[in-house]
Amino acid sequence: MREYVPAIGPKSAKIMIVGEAPGAEEVRKGEPFVGSSGQLLDSMLSDVGIRREDCFITNACKRRPPGNDIKVWFPTKTAAKADGIQPMWGRYPKAQVIEGVNELHDEIRSVQPNVILALGDTALWATTSESGITKWRGSVMPHRALGVEPQTKVIPTYHPAAIMRQWGWRAVALHDLTRAKGESEFPQIRRPEYDFKVRPSVDEILERLSWISDKLDQGPMKLSVDLETRGGHIACIGIAWSKRAAICIPFMCVERAEGYFDTPDTEFVVIRAILAVICHKNARIVGQNFLYDAQYITLYWGEICNVSMDTMIAHHVCWPGLPKGLDFLSSIYCE
Ligand code: URA
Q1: Where are the beta strands (DSSP E) in 179-289?
Q2: Is the dihedral of CA 80, 85, 88, 93 positive or negative?
């Protein structure tokens, strides 16, 4: 039985799919992703309109680990030290893994895909040097193939084997695959241009709030609002008036125990201006778990603002089985 499973696919592929290591079925057929994980991968590719035969399909490790358990080839720090295994990107890979990763990087150099779809934590680590698939999935990340300028990018998502254990993740992975399909049109990492004002001066705050207020006088306007607290007090408030533009108004700061503003009178003027905006009859406030924020606004500033939508509740109603934290939501709904 062949133990080594080579990559498959056209060298001109725009999408490279990287798995962890072959399983028994892959070894038997001599091709990656042809067992049950492969079937699931095929169904997901087809759902988002990616043709498997257009992709270059490979693994971070070309050999099947004993018992299909790649952890055998990532010993603990203590065991690795005893065996003289060198650390690499926060892990201690054995020779079988290093061989596979070097080979993978050669493949990236030669194929130069526009996007690499990394399936699972090992593929994420081998292509970007990062770990933690739940934290990173859906992100557009620079690849880290040694000796290659980051001309392509990596989008990590859940491994099909993990999806088989947690079926709700399939929908999330489909979302990431759709993103990968869009990103496969071009090689660069294109970040949105944000216009975020942090630590504004009092003049900048009042000018911006009065600009929003004037717009509100003309008609309904969506404003995203997020409040942060420290020690039971309001630390800052962020207000966004578009997908790309926002201001963050601090009340606490590290360098001044009395607060961000020079005098309580100035702070009062700023709070009045904030309330004029967030409590305006035409303001449509959008927030995440906004009941939390609203209780502080009422407790400290004595007003009730015009909430129209809670993203956490809306998302949870649509997708009750999925996480609903801001990190997860932004991975799905934001660029
Ligand atoms: N799982 C992988 O990570 N790769 C394969 O090729 C098959 C299953």
Answers
A1: 195-198, 221-230, 233-240, 245-250, 283-287
A2: negative
**pTM (predicted TM-score):** 0.90
The structure tokens listed for 252 are 């606490």
Structural tokens at position 219: 């008609």
Write out the two tokens for 28.
Answer: 């038997």
Tell me: the pLDDT tens digits for 153-178?
A: 999 999 999 999 999 999 999 999 99
Is residue 268 within 8 Å of residue 302, measured between CB atoms?
A: no
- From the DSSP assignment, how many helices (H) and strands (E) are in the chain? 13, 11
Residues 6+ apart with CB under 8 A from 54: 9, 10, 13, 14, 15
- Report the alpha-carbon distance of residue 125 to residue 92 in Å, rounded: 12
Euclidean distance between CA atoms 165 and 168, whole angstroms: 9
Distance CA 159, CA 41 (A): 9
Q: Is the pLDDT of residue 1 over 50?
A: no
Q: Ligand 1 center to residue 148 CA distance, Å?
A: 25
pLDDT at 26: 96
331 CA to middle of ligand 1, Å? Answer: 25
Kindly state the tokens that stand for 166: 């947690």
Cβ atoms of 59 and 22 within 8 Å: the answer is yes
Q: Whole-angstrom distance between the N-terminal and C-terminal Cα of the chain?
A: 45
Pocket of ligand 1 (CB under 6 A): 19-23, 26, 32-33, 35, 37-38, 59
Percent of the chain, pLDDT > 90? 89
**Closest Cα partner for 57 from 105, 19, 5?**
19
